[in-house]
Design a protein that fits this description.
The complex is a heterodimer. By secondary structure, chain A is α/β, with parallel strands linked by helices. Chain A has eleven helices and 13 strands. Chain B is about 45% helix and about 5% strand. The chains are: A alpha/beta, B mainly alpha. At the A-B interface, helix 4, strand 5, helix 6, helix 7 and strand 8 of A face helix 5, helix 8, helix 9, helix 10 and helix 14 of B.
Chain lengths: ~450, ~675
């Protein structure tokens, strides 16, 4: 089954018009000859803002026999694929002398484990996020090093959280301590980025276009390099960001990498941003699943919202703003509405897991080869605390993780210990990550 | 030219005893003032005797009002004031800024503790201003290399090509710092943006070639070159003698073969396009590189056009187009600041007032080398403001300053606000844009932002306001005399974005007024302020009663005593800014008590209060507009410049153009520090 040379991804897409409905062609699978190499491990992080109403989140029982409280109920179909991890903390999301700003810190610390610098703009500084740390290594073998998506875009000006630049509150992924990676919120643009716009030229046109693009890239890279020599270090950093992006495009043009084909897909080309939140979130989840399935990338982050988001959720009968409600002040009515939002978010996560599980890969499912973290950087939105966070881990990471359990760690265990373990699972050896104190034990059972 | 007030002065207030009254002693090493006469601003900022000496004035106040809680021993809120170095550059200046802020705001000491008298507070602030905050006024801070943001990109492409293509709508969102989305420090270039730049360049060039008018404009540019001789560098000498780069008829012989003629023509097209795209004269060596695309496609037998298109794409993806490049022409220059050249100045000016590239007039003035002359600059400011393109200020500056861009995401509860629809959302935004734009273009007093008795309405919005006699979708100027409204504050846009989906938020409205109109950033609540200290609010209590509970805790009361009354004064406007007398069944109480005990009632009373604080508003607007003009956050080094701008604004009768002129002719706008290598 190694005759994949004549079948490019484009060739397969061509002529299909607006819907991706591709037959699974074993011929198009990546180099692994039947069963020789294990499928690659994929890593994803799903973020839900404003914490959870914890009494409806934490299972009462530990171990394999764990129960599903109301907020986790949507996970019933995938319960055996989910690890509930209790008592993990983000100590660096506390003020630690910097005063308020817990929403900005929750978001920017969630994947970095770093104390972010309190500034409205000058010298913003977080840390490299775990997804980017992984992408720097495993991203080399796919078309896209990583994928960043979400359901809520950036801020349109104005002030954000207590003296923190809005950049902290709208970005999960940080490529370097000073470079946040903006997320894409429009499913159509994610789709087009992953699968290309419809392309009608023949192979010659395709080759010529690649050649042309390369020549433009060369020119621009020449300009950047020349300019770099004339600027100070702070300015050079901005140009270097651009140069890095250009190099990635170049690599993509050069390596016409084989791409695993996706199975029969119900996904049609999205037309824009759906009004309905569930539809929006599910589309984004579908796209992440599809990107994993086709091995276009092995790392993704997916923010269901920005922390501090005051979105209302009419889809589940909540017309108050989420942030407003999260300061429930003990009001049972507000808490009930919060639970509805929390559960709604978990439903979107369950949808993503369902998609991954429904996709066959190797001898099992795509989910078996994934590690998908779900969580918030705040525990209770009314208290703005960062201990005992709501955290889930789904998938088996190719057998390295044994899910279907509820594990409770000792209080104050850094969330970054989990990340250190996950980096290990995807083959990125590290001795420390953020404020980690060691690899989180007990994931393998 | 620079002076330093060196405060190598370390102060220690040493707690000696244990309990009861605190015996303290102050050790002061030395206070060195070096040559204050050289202060460039010409202001006697720190003349002898005008600086209240620390030991006499400030130390006793610290002792009396602060150190009970903020000493090394107790360190409430991690604030320690008894061993704080007086240093205007180190990071401790941040703590001093916080001290100044809470003092100004009256947030500290908390209610119930002894508080400084107004005279004591003034003396204290005078000391902070004169010593800690004024020391480094000489050198403006550096603007980090900025890229075009999304709105810049869209407008610039439109001005370059004549086509409204809006390619940047598909770029990822620009991050926001200091309230605006064009601050270099937070504008990064994620990989997806690099991809989109390349794709946009392709798309824009293809669209231009498909549109007959745009194509003609591009391919038949005026041959005249007004760029001064030498500004493009040296004419290149090429290996092949025939392939001489000819940019105008004067550059070479008239008889040439078709290939050479096409190449010449492409050179002309590229020169004119790149001049405008790079916002400066493109150099010959750059042109030569661009022309290689054309030569390649000619060689390959594909003709001129494919190569020309690639060269144009390369221009649009070049950092010289995407970034506001400002560099030293003479790297040997040793002065700490250097003036921008006229091309860079034209760019700063047009992106400030138009949010887009300079036009022909600005380019010509830059080529003549006269743009930087103050009289020319002021005339250009007036011209740009009077041009319809200055609408960008209403959209980009006002939309972010006031937060009205947030209207796009406004989602009021349909059960409570069944009338809310898209026409109303659009009308709210349009009113504020037209109102702001009128103050700018008619060069009115900026104080009208606080209390103008006119606005712009269409039928939909007039109905929302209960103002009769306005028919149709067209907006027109409407008098607000004899209504409850006037100024920005009572516009539906502002009242809506400061509300929650189901109800008003007096706290948000109060904070909005303090931060956006009065320049009093609200101090951050003490840690734990969000905790449910008050327990569950009794059922059936009104919003006002719930908020009154802020007063129950002294830690909250000192700030909320200033925040909440401002919001209460607007309670007659519901969460969408419509007038109301009742909230559900409760009669609205829009009376407020200021911290000093004086009272006011409703929007008129609030407006009178805001007018009484006109000077604070001037300073607040000045700081916001300067931040926007520079694309960076203001620092202590800008303080003298801001002081001067505020004075100029007052002298000019508070007219908007006066402020814009003053900003454009100020040092922070005209100059930048020379390259400094970062460690």
């Amino acid at each position: 089954m190694n005759h994949r040379q004549g079948i490019s991804r484009r060739a397969a897409l061509r002529g299909l018009g607006v819907s991706v409905a591709l037959p699974l062609l074993e011929a198009m699978l990546p180099t692994r000859a039947s069963g020789a190499a294990a499928p690659p491990a994929r890593l994803a992080f799903v973020y839900a803002p404003n914490g959870k109403h914890m009494p409806a989140w934490t299972p009462a029982r530990l171990g394999v026999d764990y129960d599903l409280p109301p907020t986790l109920e949507p996970l019933r179909a995938v319960k055996d694929d989910v690890l509930v991890l209790s008592r993990l903390s983000l100590p660096k999301a506390n003020g630690n002398g910097d005063g308020p700003g817990d929403h900005a810190r929750a978001m920017a610390t969630f994947l970095t484990g770093c104390q972010i610098r309190k500034t409205d703009g000058a010298d913003i500084r977080a840390g490299i996020s775990v997804d980017q740390a992984a992408a720097a290594v495993v991203g080399r073998s796919t078309r896209f090093a990583s994928l960043e998506v979400g359901c809520e875009g950036g801020r349109d000006g104005g002030t954000c959280d207590h003296g923190y630049s809005c950049a902290y509150q709208t970005n999960l992924s940080w490529r370097s301590p000073s470079q946040p990676v903006a997320k894409e919120v429009n499913p159509r643009l994610v789709f087009e980025r992953l699968f290309g716009s419809p392309f009608s030229g023949g192979r010659d046109a395709e080759a010529r276009q690649a050649r042309d693009r390369r020549s433009v890239l060369d020119f621009v890279a020449g300009d950047v390099n020349e300019l770099n020599g004339l600027l100070g270090a702070g300015d050079r950093r901005k140009l270097d960001e651009y140069l890095t992006g250009l190099r990635e495009v170049e690599r993509r043009i050069q390596a016409s990498q084989p791409v695993a084909e996706v199975g029969q897909s119900r996904l049609t080309r999205p037309t824009g941003v759906p009004q309905d939140f569930a539809e929006h979130a599910r589309l984004m989840g579908d796209l992440v699943a599809l990107a994993f399935q086709a091995d276009l990338t092995r790392v993704a982050t997916f923010a269901l919202g920005n922390d501090g988001s005051n979105r209302s959720f009419r889809e589940v009968g909540v017309s108050e703003g989420h942030h407003d409600l999260s300061h429930h002040g003990g009001d049972p009515e507000k808490q009930a509405k919060l639970r509805r939002i929390n559960r709604f978010h978990v439903e979107q996560f369950a949808h993503l897991l369902g998609r991954l599980k429904a996709t066959k890969e190797g001898g099992g499912t795509l989910l078996d080869n994934c590690l998908v973290v779900y969580g918030s950087g705040i525990r209770d939105g009314d208290r703005h605390d960062h201990d005992d966070l709501p955290v889930l881990l789904a998938g088996r990471g190719g057998g390295k993780v044994r899910p279907g359990r509820h594990v409770r760690y000792s209080g104050g265990t850094p969330l970054t210990n989990l990340y250190l373990a996950l980096l290990d699972c995807v083959g990125v050896e590290s001795v420390a990550f953020g404020d980690s104190t060691g690899k989180l034990p007990s994931l393998g059972g | 030219m620079k002076w330093w007030l060196l405060l190598g002065m370390m102060l220690y207030v040493m707690a000696v005893g244990g309990c009861g009254a605190r015996p303290t002693s102050i050790l002061m090493d030395r206070l060195v003032v070096e040559d204050p006469s050289e202060e460039p601003d010409g202001m006697a900022a720190t003349g002898e005797g005008s600086v209240p000496a620390f030991a006499e004035t400030v130390a006793p106040l610290l002792n009396r009002y602060c150190l009970d809680c903020h000493s090394s021993e107790k360190a409430r809120g991690d604030v320690v004031l008894d061993s704080l170095a007086i240093d205007s550059e180190g990071k401790e200046v941040v703590t001093w800024q916080r001290v100044a802020q809470v003092l100004r705001f009256g947030a500290m000491p908390p209610v119930g503790k002894p508080r400084p008298t107004p005279a004591e507070r003034d003396a204290w602030n005078a000391w902070l201003d004169a010593t800690v905050f004024r020391a480094t006024c000489a050198t403006p801070a550096r603007v980090t290399l900025r890229r075009l943001n999304r709105t810049h990109y869209n407008r610039t492409v439109q001005d370059l090509t004549g086509l409204d293509l809006r390619p940047a709508d598909e770029f990822p969102a620009d991050d926001v710092g200091y309230g605006f989305d064009h601050v270099g420090d937070v504008l990064s270039v994620p990989p997806v943006l690099a991809e989109r730049y390349l794709a946009a360049a392709e798309r824009v060039v293809n669209q231009v070639f498909q549109d007959p008018a745009a194509r003609r404009r591009l391919l038949e540019p005026p041959a005249e070159d007004f760029v001064p001789y030498g500004a493009r560098g040296l004419l290149p000498v090429r290996d092949e003698p025939r392939k001489v780069l000819r940019l105008s008829a004067a550059d070479g012989p008239a008889t040439l073969d078709a290939t050479q003629r096409d190449l010449d023509r492409a050179g002309l097209v590229l020169r004119v396009f790149a001049d405008r795209a790079y916002r400066r004269p493109v150099r010959y060596d750059e042109l030569t590189r661009l022309l290689r695309f054309v030569e390649e496609s000619q060689k390959a037998g594909e003709g001129t056009e494919p190569g020309l298109k690639l060269a144009l794409q390369a221009v649009l993806a070049s950092p010289h187009f995407l970034f506001f490049v400002e560099r030293d022409d003479n790297p040997m220059r040793s002065a700490s600041t250097s003036p921008l050249n006229d091309w860079e100045l034209a760019t700063r000016l047009s992106y400030f007032l138009w949010g887009s590239m300079p036009d022909e007039t600005l380019f010509r003035l830059a080529a003549l080398g006269t743009l930087h002359q103050p009289r020319t600059l002021r005339a250009q400011v007036r011209r740009l403001l009077a041009d319809p393109r200055s609408r960008a200020l209403a959209q980009d500056f006002a939309g972010q300053w006031l937060g009205t861009r947030g209207l796009q995401g406004l989602a009021p509860d349909p059960a409570r606000f069944p009338d809310f629809d898209e026409p109303l959302r659009r009308a709210m935004l349009t009113e504020t844009e037209l109102f702001f734009d009128a103050v700018v273009r008619e060069d009115r007093s900026v104080r009208e932002f606080l209390d103008a008795d006119w606005t712009y309405l269409n039928e939909r919005l007039a109905r929302h306001y209960g103002i009769p006699g306005v028919r149709g979708e067209e907006f027109r100027r409407v008098s607000l005399a004899d209504t409850q409204r006037g100024g920005l504050l009572t516009q539906a846009s502002v009242l809506s974005i400061t509300s929650n989906p189901t109800r008003t938020s007096p706290v948000k409205r109060g904070r909005w007024i303090l931060e956006n109109l009065l320049g009093d950033p609200v101090p951050t609540p003490p840690p734990g302020a969000d905790n449910l200290k008050f327990g569950v609010t009794p059922a059936g209590s009104t919003l006002r009663q719930r908020l009154e509970r802020h007063r129950a805790d002294p830690a909250c009361a000192s700030c909320h005593a200033r925040l909440d009354p401002l919001g209460f004064g607007l309670e007659n406007f519901d969460a969408l800014g419509a007038w109301r007398t009742h909230d559900d069944d409760t009669r609205i109480d829009a009376a407020g008590v200021w911290p000093d005990g004086s009272t006011f009632d409703g929007p008129a009373g609030l407006r009178a209060y805001l007018k009484s604080r006109g000077d604070d508003f001037d300073r607040c607007l000045t700081e916001k507009l300067l931040t926007y003009a520079l694309g960076r956050g203001l620092t202590l080094t800008d303080r003298c410049a801001v002081d001067r701008l505020v004075r100029q604004l007052a002298r000019g009768g508070h007219r908007f153009a006066t402020l814009a002129e003053a900003i454009v002719t100020s040092d922070p706008f005209l100059k930048r520090p020379s390259q400094q290598e970062e460690p």
